[in-house]
């Protein structure tokens, strides 16, 4: 019999979907207090040896994420780890990947993140900050706004997030250029360019969206030179990782008037320190790395786990498997 470790909140959410597996899998849950127990009878478990682990938002944003990860790493080896995240730049996940025979990611959070991008871009085009400031002053002053129709987008890192954003922008009449390493057409993009040509595309873009993974090559890619190449009326958005952007250079560029505004869901240091100039800059909108935090995102991640669990038990290929060499030293 296999043993599966997951959060108690997750188990309660999908319990009905797991009926019938009692003779194949023993479920161990961690509750909100960091205690581990058998899901069936509530017996406390001290020596946890799971074959399967589902690490998701219930774990990551709970008070005992460290306890969960320590318990997993102490096993020294698990058969399959299902992550609810798309990225692999977290050191803890990399450590888990090293001890997992199979490690799977999840890409369904892109739907919520795409809506975040539309929200921020509409607020920029429709002069949300200016309108809110006028309302606070009871100032009836008509402002000329911009349209999504005909806008030109440059999406740097055209994976699942970029595609989800691009498809929505196209439906609203915008033009989408995606930048990625692999050539060829992609759903949601009118045009695909190699990463080496990103800077040459900046002068045409009304919106520049970062959704590229953090690597040695992409770290600090948005520097003073990058920002100076953007249009003075453009919007910069970051849905990737905070370390993609030189934040000091960004503040200086915004002060100089190029680009016009920045919307970020990620910062180089998280939580963002209270003394960071980004908090109070009039040309910056910040959300606390929560663009994907919707109930629908959690449910879609559950579906990824349940689909892969079905395949796992049937000895069929799993979805979104990360190659073993990715975790090699």
Q: Can you offer a commentary on this structure?
A:
It is a single chain. The protein is 32% helix and 18% strand. The mean pLDDT is 96. The two termini are 32 Å apart. It is elongated and about 65 Å long. The chain contains 11 helices and 13 strands. The chain folds into 2 domains: 2-108 and 295-327, 3-Layer(aba) Sandwich (Rossmann fold); 110-286, 3-Layer(aba) Sandwich (Rossmann fold), CATH 3.40.50. It has a 7-stranded parallel sheet, with helices on one face. Helix 1 (8-14) links the parallel strand 1 (2-7) and strand 2. The chain has helices at residues 8-14, 57-60, 65-74, 91-98, 110-125, 128-136, 160-171, 198-201, 224-228, 247-256, 295-313, and strands spanning 2-7, 25-30, 36-38, 52-55, 78-83, 100-104, 152-156, 175-179, 191-193, 207-210, 235-238, 261-264, 284-286. By secondary structure, it is an alpha/beta fold.
Task: Give short descriptive properties of this protein.
about 325 residues; about 30% helix; six-stranded mixed sheet; alpha/beta; Rossmann fold; seven-stranded parallel sheet; elongated
| Strand segment count | 13
Q: Major β-sheet, in short? A: 7 strands, parallel
Computed over alpha carbons, the radius of gyration is 22 Å
On the 0 to 100 scale, the average pLDDT is 96
Given this structure, which CATH class of the largest domain is correct? Alpha Beta
Fraction in beta strands: 15-25%
Strand order of the largest sheet: 9-8-7-10-11-12-13
CATH architectural designation of the largest domain: 3-Layer(aba) Sandwich
């Amino acid at each position: 019999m296999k043993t599966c470790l997951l959060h108690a909140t997750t188990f309660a959410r999908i319990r009905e979907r797991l009926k019938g597996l009692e003779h194949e899998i023993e479920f161990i849950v961690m509750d909100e207090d960091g205690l581990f127990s058998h899901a069936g009878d509530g017996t406390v478990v001290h020596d946890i040896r799971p074959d399967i682990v589902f690490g998701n938002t219930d774990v990551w944003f709970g008070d005992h994420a460290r306890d969960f990860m320590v318990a997993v790493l102490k096993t020294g080896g698990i058969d399959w780890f299902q992550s609810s995240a798309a990225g692999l730049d977290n050191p803890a996940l990399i450590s888990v990947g090293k001890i997992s025979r199979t490690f799977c990611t999840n890409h369904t959070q892109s739907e919520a993140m795409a809506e975040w991008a539309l929200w921020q871009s509409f607020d920029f085009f429709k002069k949300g900050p200016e309108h809110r400031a006028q309302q606070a002053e009871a100032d009836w002053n008509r402002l000329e706004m911009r349209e999504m129709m005909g806008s030109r987008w440059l999406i740097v890192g055209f994976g699942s997030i970029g595609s989800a954003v691009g498809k929505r922008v196209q439906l609203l009449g915008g033009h989408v250029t995606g930048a990625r390493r692999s050539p060829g057409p992609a759903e949601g993009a009118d045009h695909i360019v190699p990463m080496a040509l990103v800077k040459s595309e900046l002068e045409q873009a009304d919106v520049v969206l970062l959704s590229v993974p953090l690597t040695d090559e992409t770290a600090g890619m948005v520097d003073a030179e990058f920002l100076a190449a953007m249009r003075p009326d453009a919007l910069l958005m970051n849905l990737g990782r905070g370390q993609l952007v030189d934040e000091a250079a960004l503040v200086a560029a915004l002060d100089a008037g190029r680009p016009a505004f920045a919307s970020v869901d990620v910062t180089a240091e998280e939580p963002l320190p209270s003394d960071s100039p980004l908090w109070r800059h009039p040309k910056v909108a910040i959300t606390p790395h929560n663009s994907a935090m919707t109930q629908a995102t959690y449910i879609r991640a559950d579906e990824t786990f349940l689909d892969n669990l079905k395949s796992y038990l049937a000895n069929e290929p799993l979805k979104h498997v990360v190659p073993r060499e990715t975790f090699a030293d």
